[in-house]
Amino acid sequence: MTTATKVKLAGNGTSNNSAKAHAPVWPTWSTLSPRALADLDAAYGWSLDADELKTVQAHFIGLKREPVRAEIETLAQTWSEHCSHKTFRSAVKYKEGRSTKRFKNLLKETIMEPTKKLKKKWCLSVFEDNAGIIAFDKKWALAYKVETHNHPCAVEPYGGAETGVGGVIRDILGAGLGAKPVMNTDVFCFCPPDYKGYLPEGILHPRRTMSSVVEGVRDYGNRMGIPTAAGAIWFDEAYKMNPLVFVGTIGIMPRSAVKKSIHPGDLIVAVGGKTGRDGLHGATFSSAAIDDTTSTSAVQVGHAIEEKRLLDALLKARDKNLYRGLTDCGAGGFSSAIGEMASLSGRKGGACVRLDAAALKTSDLSPWEIWVSESQERMVLAVPKKNLRALQGIFAGEGSEVSVLGEFTNTGCLEVSFGDETLVNLDLKFLHDGNPQRERNASFTPPPKNLPKKVKRSEDRSKITEILHWSLANLNTCSREWVIRQYDHEVQGGTVIKPLQGLHHDGPGDAPVLWPGIVTGEVENFKGFTVGHGLNPSYGKLDPYAMALIAVDEALGNLVCVGGDPTKAALLDNFCWGDVNDPEQLGGLVRAALGCKDAALGFQTPFISGKDSLHNVYTDAKGKKHSIPGTLLISAIAPVDDIRKAVTMDFKAPNNPVFLVGPTNEDFGGSLYEQWKGTPQGAAPQVNIKTAKKTLWTLSAAIRKGLVFSAHNLSEGGLAVAAAEMAIAGDVSIDIDLDDVTRSKNLLDNVSILFTESPSRFLVEVKAEKEKAFLKAMRGAPLCRIGQTIANPVLRVTGLDGTRLLEESLHDLKKSWQGTLPRMLEGESNDKGRNA
Amino acid sequence: MKKPKIMILRTAGTNCDVETATALKMADASPELVHITELAGKKKSVFDYAAIVIPGGFSYGDDVAAGKILANEIKAHVKDLRGFVRSGRPVIGICNGFQVLVKAGLLPQSIAGDQTATLTINDSNKFETRWVRLRVNLQSGSLFTQGLPEMIELPVAHGEGKFVVKSPKVLESLKKSRSILMQYVNEEGKFSGYPYNPNGSLFNIAAITNPDGNCLGMMPHPERYTSRYHHPNWTRQTFCKEGVGLEIFRNTVKYALN
Fold first, then answer.
1. For B248-258, what is each residue's pLDDT tens digit?
2. How much is the pTM?
3. Per the CB < 8 Å rule, is B196 touching A836?
């Protein structure tokens, strides 16, 4: 239990009351029993486990002194799941069926290993800084980070979402010597907003959670002037207690600003907002499960304009080389930020901090609270003494605070004082590497290997129309316009391929393309970049390994569709998992991590950064634990060599040939069709990485040669949904002959061909006069010509028997596709969603 | 040829300053970002510049009402701005900048200099980003729209863009002085409801000027359409012209040079 309420109940400390009331009886640690230590942990909200408490106790017994509170707070913050990813970095004994595999460090041996093996020269900074950094061109680099901010959004969705965005923006400001944020991304997992089932007391209705999170992301991103231009939303009732919020930021920086350094003697300078009591224990809170006693005081308060001032001042100071290193104050506040930077100072590292100088929001903070407060919009810089005056001048010009908190040293110690009082005197080695390692158990029961049977599906023609409308209106497929319009996705003037595409600017784009030329002022440089996502927890419920492969395949496929170069793509992973103390849950995570590894090696696409959020669990009144479905988000970023050759997904003109690229197989496990049927069965789709890579790479080359008029990645709902989306977006339709679809032998009927969800597939419109060149360019990749575009506003499909199977008006299909979110979130009539 | 020096006025929360500067550079001007404190502290004067742009964003977070605090600061500390407008030099307020000009009483122009209109919360009650079709008032004779076609497209992105006036007289005088520069229309060029009029503006008003035509306030963002690749349908290969937003800045520069 990490809650403030619990603290009060225990009467043992008053972390949320005023300093005057703060007079806990600090016990003599060396004599406490393990039980007493655990009670103390619960009362103070540290989320340290029994082993960690014992290690801390032994450390101070070895030093022949008792710890003071700020030292324990520092250790608790630094060793928290949020700051150290202790589960993902731990040793794991993994059982799968009858085989056992041991990992010394799960993260290093799965996600990070391919990056090391692939040795891509354009990876400039991986897994070491606040964000992954890749080369953009000779002069510029791109930094990308995706954060999870789930626990705060569960208890206070608006504030949680705002500070999530604020935090990841600061990660980019704090990457290398600081990058200018040029794009935000947002991915959410919610319970359906029309949920009508039971909700325990104190849990917000999913509709409220969703609209508040969207408002939070909108208000912070819009005020910062950063376009929120890519994302995804997934709906599943399993997220009703634990919504997931992934927020990402991409920044651009000169390549000379990629590396940071800190010299002993550099001043420790805090800039940006003042320090208050908001967000105490946010880091340790993230290690804990949520229950009905969870306090909202663990969530910080965001102030976008404060952060905008900070951004404006910081980038000016960077360009004048006024500081050498920096990091943002996120989880753990000063304690984590300064603790982290201290280890970079000189050979041994060290910092000497005097907290008296910190600018405070309120005067009644106790010193340890200043030290661990997670007040937002703050960063810490390492500033050579001679530059202080110039730095102060720049920040004053923007109305942003500067306070000197001490200096970096080479003593190997983190020393913190307030007035005459010593708050912390910790050995850096112990702080960063002292937490006890223990092997965790994980097990996974492999899914039954039922070879795809020959399944005959409904041949009822009226049903096909029904399934298509149902699929388009399904929450996981329907239009996201209600959300996207609220984001200023065009600020900075670089969004040359928009998230909403097509004739009426309302089609579901696979990915946006950003052109940083407007921001850098290099308007003759037409190089850009694109960002894509892959996420589908439905597949994960069947097999987390398959989910990982599909997520990577989908994210890369989305980049390919708009003209991204997959050979220079980089990946980010975000794992959101449930109760990883349960070996079965941890087993699923290991399996997904193995999927990531195989996908990265197979596609030769390195991971550059990642973040995990574990313990997304709700404990009900009876004490039963409910974990979320294991959820993996893959975000991919790739350069677009020439934005003038980018492609959108809307059909452009009638009488053009349309090709289905990629292999079509019996892949119904976790599919929309199975959900419609109501009795889901089948195995998760398997990505054949070799075929997938050949398909993606070949198609990408054809697109970048300018041979493709429109391209769309097939995902949920398969061919039928993708074709409908392209037609809806373009106001140009398609006439498909299903017998022309090259398919595996076990695909027997019309429904199967229309709705199978085989990965690595694309629907591509080619200009009639370029068909020959396209076919030549695509040699070696699986493809078939399945029809042509038509001017009639109807989606037309000819069945295997040669007769008309479907002829449905685009207007009606669009209505189904657009109506869902406005109806659920505003109760609006369906016709109102049309755009200019 | 000499490049005219154009001020981009910024403050905490201004966020369209960089792309506006790029647009001005593309139009062959020499833009300079000037913080309001530099004007208030008399370090710089508006008369050092050939034209002024107040760009979009959320000045001070729009915490009171959009543009209100910056408008008050201008009224208190940049009293020269009124004289600058009277001198005939170009002033453009875009989005938040338009809100500032309205709340500072500069637009619609009134003799006493008091506020006679406002830009209030969209009818949809939401911040919205979308491309709109606009009809340019070719009779206005404003310097900014010289040579522009009657029908243009530009993006809007705002939560408070609904133009309303204090009294019907204000609208009458705007009409009479040909100060309504742009109106929201549909594909056929006709007035239409939401979403063609994205915010519910009175008389579909998207942009107005002072009667002399040198002070412009507009909700759409011309700095976001300076290249053909900004248009949402450029991949359909039917829109091949350069961005119409750039023309507005070019006209500003051309005028400033004369």
1. 999 999 999 88
2. 0.93
3. yes
CA distance A26 to A21: 14
For chains A and B, CB pairs below 8 A equal 125
Comparing alpha-carbon positions, the chain A residue that sits nearest to B198 is A836
Chain B partners within 8 Å of A490 (Cβ): 129, 155, 157, 221, 224
Given a cut of 80, whether residue A624 has pLDDT beyond it is: yes
CA pair distance A479, A820, nearest whole angstrom: 8
Does the structure show a pLDDT above 50 at A13? no
Domain of residue A9: give its range.
4-66
B95 as an active site residue: the answer is yes
Residue B153 bears catalytic tag: no
**Whether A309 and B237 lie within 8 Å, measured CB to CB:** no
Q: Are A742 and A658 found together in one domain? A: yes
Which chain B residue shows the shortest CA-CA distance from A483? B128
Helix (H) or strand (E) holding A415: strand A413-418
**pLDDT tens for residues A404-455?**
999 999 999 999 999 999 999 999 999 999 988 889 999 999 877 665 566 7
Q: Is B223 one of the annotated active-site residues of the chain? A: yes
Residues A775 and A667 in one domain: yes
Taking the CA of residue A455 and the nearest CA in chain B, the distance in Å comes to: 41
Residue A629: pLDDT band with limits 50, 70, 90: very high
Q: What's the mean pLDDT in B206-230?
A: 97
Helix/strand/coil for B56: coil
* Structure-token pair, residue A475: 């929450």
User: CB atoms < 10 A from the CB of B162, how many?
Assistant: 21
Three-state secondary structure readout of A557-626: HHHHHHCCCHHHCEEEEEEECCCCCCHHHHHHHHHHHHHHHHHHHHHCCCEEEEEEECCCEEECCCCCEE
Active-site residue among B73, B153, B160, B223?
A: B223
Find, among A67, A64, A59, A62, the residue nearest to A29 by Cα: A67
Phi, psi (rounded to 5 degrees) for A657: -70, 145
Are residue A384 and residue A430 in the same domain, yes or no? yes
Contact (CB<8Å) B235/A309: no
Q: Could you say which of B22, B127, B196 has the minimum Cβ distance to residue A521?
A: B22
**Chain A partners within 8 Å of B18 (Cβ):** 492, 518-519
At B27-65, the pLDDT tens digits run 999 999 999 999 999 999 999 999 999 999 998 877 777
Nearest to A543 by CA among A686, A370, A753, A721: A686
Domain edge (last residue) among A258, A284, A314: A258
Please tell me whether residues A801 and A723 are part of one structural domain.
yes
Name every residue whose Cβ is closer than 8 Å to that of residue A560 and which is 6 or more positions away in sequence.
A566, A696, A699, A700, A703, A711, A713, A762
Q: pLDDT of A533-551, one tens digit each?
A: 999 999 999 999 999 999 9
Spell out which residues of chain B touch residue A399, defining contact as CB-CB under 8 Å. Answer: 12, 37
Domain-located, residue A781: yes
pLDDT above 50 (res A594): yes
A631: part of which helix (H) or strand (E)?
strand A631-640
Mean pLDDT across the stretch A642-647?
Answer: 96
- The answer to whether A267 and A351 have CB atoms below 8 angstroms apart is no
Domains located in chain B, CATH noted: 5-257 (3.40.50.880)
Residue A382 CA to residue A260 CA, distance in Å, equals 10
Contact B127 A488 (CB under 8 A): yes
Q: Sort out which chain A residues have CB atoms less than 8 A from B132's CB and list them.
A: 836
